[in-house]
Design goal:
Blueprint: E1 3-8, E2 14-25, E3 30-36, E4 39-47, E5 55-58, E6 63-68, H1 83-91, H2 96-104, E7 113-118, E8 123-127, E9 134-135, E10 139-143, H3 153-166, H4 174-180, H5 199-204, E11 215-226, E12 230-237, E13 246-253
Antiparallel strand pairs: 1-2, 1-10, 2-11, 3-4, 4-5, 5-6, 6-7, 7-8, 8-9, 11-12, 12-13
Length: 267
């Protein structure tokens, strides 16, 4: 993905409020979000070219999301797909901390990435571009194609808009959060980063919602995880324009493993 906005343990009703846009070339084959046939506890979209995913959540409350770190000079065509970083964690059973510790030994094999990985109790951030893995405290965060909370205009605007929605503290409407992701406005050229793709592409990539003849926002997501374990997952998919071609909506409750359930009190 190319834009992630999230509020972690910052709302009285939700442990996680998550919104994201996945930007990709229009011709890359993709499957919309669903519970996977070969992994029925995993809800995620799927990259049909490499088989991994960019974002997902499981019935047990495991969560992960990925953005690429934009650095065309260091890109290697033969590097393994970064989508496997997400699916490998979601399909596994080790803690996010242990997974990221194991990943650190091979993180350099991949092109630049940012990875969020968590469970029902903790959330971690990791990048292989100059920022150590760490557990995140409660807060409102933004992540694009640089490091966590790099103050690019789209990140700052998205964070501010999300914070404004969650500040009243009542129940949230996923559709209102989704509207934040539909903003196609572009900042002034003087505010754009220089990531090595040229000014015209910096302009195209500067908006929260991206459109161009060959590349743009393919899908938008809202994920709400309530403190009591309720999960709401909303996906809208696009194909070169602002009008969604498909909408998917899922709701379920996190299943607590038997070994983590509290024993019933003695009568």
């Amino acid at each position: 993905m190319c834009l992630v906005l999230f509020a972690y343990k910052s709302h009285p009703l939700y442990s996680l409020v998550f919104a994201a846009n996945r930007d990709e070339f229009y011709d890359r084959p993709t499957r919309s979000a669903s519970f996977w046939n070969d992994a029925p506890d995993l809800l995620a979209g799927r990259d049909l070219k490499e088989g991994g995913t960019w974002f997902g959540v499981t019935r047990q409350g495991r969560f992960a999301a990925l953005t690429n770190f934009r650095d065309p000079k260091s890109h290697r065509n033969q590097a393994p797909s970064r989508g496997w970083l997400v699916s490998s964690y979601l399909l596994g059973t080790v803690s996010p901390e242990e997974y990221l510790k194991e990943l650190s030994a091979k993180a350099g094999d991949f092109n630049g990435f940012n990875l969020l990985a968590g469970d029902t109790g903790r959330l971690f951030y990791c990048s292989n571009r100059g920022m150590p893995c760490r557990e995140l405290p409660p807060g409102v965060y933004g992540l694009s194609n640089h490091l966590l909370d790099t103050p690019w205009p789209k990140v700052e605007k998205g964070k501010s808009d999300l914070a404004g929605l969650i500040r009243p503290g009542g129940r949230l409407d996923p559709k209102e959060i989704m509207q934040i992701l539909r903003d196609g406005s572009r900042p002034d050229d003087t505010l754009l980063p220089d990531t090595g793709v040229g000014l015209e592409w910096e302009r195209i990539l500067s908006s929260l919602f991206i459109t161009s003849p060959i590349y743009g926002t393919r899908s938008s997501y809202v994920l709400l995880i309530e403190n009591g374990g309720g999960v709401t997952f909303l996906e809208k998919t696009f194909n070169g324009g602002p009008d969604p071609e498909e909408t998917a909506h899922f709701q379920f409750r996190i299943e607590v493993p038997h070994d983590k359930r509290r024993a019933a009190p003695e009568p």
